[in-house]
Write a sequence for this structure.
C-alpha cells in the first residue's frame, strides 16, 4: 500500500506500469486520458479511494448511487475500470487485468463514509486483494438488498433485515455461506464500534458450522510426489516449465499463484535463495534454492 502519495505521482506510476504490461495502444490512450482528467480534478491532493469516487460522481453525476455495469456505455466503463485499477495499484501494488467488468462502486451517500472506512481498515490490516474484492461484492449485495427494502441509512438496519438477507444464501456451498457470514460479521462489527449502528448485529449472525460437511484435505505422500516428478516430460519447453513448477511446489511448498508470479529478479543465484512477496498474504518470504530446483529453472530458461 502506497501511503500519502499525490494523485499526480500515483497516476504517473500507474501509467508507466501499464506501458510495461499492456500492448494495446488504443486502450493505453484511453487510460491516459482518464488519468490526466483525474490529475487535474485532484490538483495537489494526496490520493484516496474516496477522492476517486468523488471524481466519478462529478464526472457522471451519479449522486449517491450504486453503479452497475448495465448503466454505462463503453466510454464510461473505461473511467470506472481505470479508477478501480488505480485503487488496486495503490492498495496492493498490482494490476488486475479483467475481461469482465463489475465496475467501480460508488457507495450510497449515507453508507459511503462507514463503508469506505471499513475497507480502508481491512486493507491496513494486510488482508489480501482477493479477500477485499470478494468482500466488496458481498457488501454491494447487502446494500442493494437494503435499498430494495427502503433502508437507506446504517442505523435503520434491523435484526429482521439481517435475517432476511441471510436467507438469500440458501443453495450456496457451506464454504460460500461461511465466507459471506465472516465478511458481514467484520462489517457489522466495524459499524458498531464506530457508532454507525446501535444494535450489535455481528453478534446476531449465525455461526457457520461446516467442519462436519467438508471433505478431508488430500495429501500426497513422498512416493506419489516422486512418481509425478519422474513422469514429467522434460524435452519440450512446456515440459521443462512444468517440471520446474512441480519442483518449486514440491520442494519449497510454493502456492500456484506465487509460482505463476515468480520473476527472474526474485532469484539470487549467488546466495542460492528465492525472495518473494506472497500473493495471498502480501508478506515477504525468503527460501533457500535447492540445487535440483535451480537447475530445473535454468534448463527451462535456456530453452
Amino acid at each position: 500500500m502506497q501511503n500519502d502519495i499525490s494523485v499526480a505521482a500515483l497516476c504517473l506510476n500507474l501509467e508507466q506500469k501499464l506501458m510495461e504490461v499492456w500492448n494495446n495502444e488504443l486502450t493505453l490512450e484511453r487510460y491516459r486520458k482518464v488519468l490526466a482528467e483525474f490529475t487535474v480534478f485532484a490538483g495537489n491532493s494526496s490520493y484516496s479511494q474516496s477522492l476517486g469516487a468523488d471524481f466519478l460522481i462529478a464526472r457522471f453525476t451519479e449522486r449517491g448511487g450504486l453503479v452497475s455495469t448495465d448503466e454505462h456505455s463503453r466510454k464510461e466503463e473505461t473511467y470506472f475500470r481505470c479508477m478501480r485499477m488505480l485503487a488496486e495499484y495503490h492498495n496492493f501494488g498490482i494490476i488486475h487485468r479483467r475481461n469482465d467488468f463489475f465496475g467501480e462502486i460508488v457507495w450510497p451517500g449515507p453508507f459511503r463514509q462507514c463503508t469506505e472506512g471499513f475497507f480502508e481498515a481491512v486493507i491496513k490490516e494486510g488482508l489480501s486483494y482477493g479477500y477485499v474484492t470478494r468482500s466488496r461484492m458481498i457488501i454491494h449485495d447487502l446494500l442493494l438488498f437494503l435499498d430494495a427494502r427502503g433502508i437507506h441509512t446504517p442505523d435503520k438496519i434491523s435484526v429482521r433485515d439481517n435475517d432476511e438477507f441471510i436467507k438469500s444464501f440458501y443453495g450456496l456451498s457451506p464454504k460460500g455461506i461461511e465466507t459471506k457470514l465472516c465478511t458481514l460479521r467484520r462489517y457489522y462489527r466495524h459499524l458498531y464500534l464506530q457508532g454507525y449502528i446501535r444494535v450489535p448485529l455481528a453478534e446476531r449472525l449465525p455461526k457457520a458450522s461446516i467442519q462436519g460437511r467438508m471433505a478431508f484435505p488430500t495429501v500426497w505422500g513422498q512416493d506419489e510426489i516422486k512418481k509425478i516428478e519422474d513422469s514429467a516430460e522434460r524435452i519440450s519447453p512446456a515440459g521443462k516449465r512444468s517440471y520446474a513448477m512441480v519442483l518449486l511446489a514440491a520442494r519449497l511448498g510454493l502456492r500456484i499463484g506465487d509460482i505463476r508470479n515468480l520473476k527472474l529478479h526474485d532469484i539470487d543465484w549467488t546466495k542460492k535463495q528465492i525472495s518473494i512477496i506472497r500473493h495471498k498474504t502480501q508478506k515477504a518470504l525468503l527460501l533457500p534454492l535447492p540445487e535440483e530446483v535451480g537447475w530445473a529453472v535454468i534448463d527451462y530458461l535456456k530453452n
